[in-house]
Amino acid sequence: MSPDEARRRALAAIDAAADTLIGVSRRMHAEVELSFAEHKAQGWLCAAAEAAPA
C-alpha cells in the first residue's frame, strides 16, 4: 500500500468514527475523573473500539 493510500484510508476511518469519538470526548469532559483514575473513560473508549468495524 502506498503512503497516499494509507493516508486516505486513515482519514476515512477517522471521519467514519468522528461522531463516536466526539461523543466519548464530550462524555469524558462532562464526567471528569481525577488522579489517573479514568475507569469510566476507559470503559467508554473500550466500548467504542469494540463496536467499531474491523
Describe the structure.
By secondary structure, the protein is mostly helical. It has one domain. Helices cover 76% and strands 0% of the residues. It has 2 helices and no strands. The longest helix is centred in the N-terminal third of the chain and has 28 residues. It is elongated and about 40 Å long.
The level of helicity is: over 70%
| Topology pattern, helix = H, strand = E | HH
Shape: elongated
Strand content: under 5%
Number of strands: 0
Structural class: mainly alpha
Number of structural domains: 1
Q: What about the largest sheet? A: none
End-to-end CA span: 18 Å
Number of helices: 2
Rounded average pLDDT: 92
Low-confidence stretches: none
Radius of gyration: 14 Å
